[in-house]
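New to this. Help decode the following:
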Amino acid sequence: MDENGMWVDKDGNPTDHINNDGTLDWFSFSGYRRYHSECHVCHGPDGMGSSYAPALKDSLQNMSYADFLGTVAAGRQNVTTSQNNVMPSFGNNKNVMCYINDIYVYLRARGNGDLDRARPEKHTPKPKVYADAETACVGF
């Protein structure tokens, strides 16, 4: 766990954590909420993809944390002879960028099989340091 209460892997990338009793870490729970508020319209429920956009739970299996952040912030255009997929930039969207680590952790947990397709039942409380950072980022 890092100084902000977020779980990280051996490379320092955010990751999920589930206690023995099934309690999910706050960041993953927040990511579930934020993903379903901002991302699921294109990428489908639970990161499973749609006819419009890829399954992010699968994309994260081959995408680095840095690439994920860059793609979300700057957007992406993937044009082939059979399709024209455009993801807009979310770099100025505080509802995404203030919670980007949470969204990443949630999708990573979905992709590695730690979370099922359902709203997590139990989660740890929001850490104070998280609440302070959220207030500073969102500005409320």
User: Anything to note?
Assistant: The helical segments are 26-38, 40-43, 56-59, 65-74, 94-97, 100-111, 128-138.
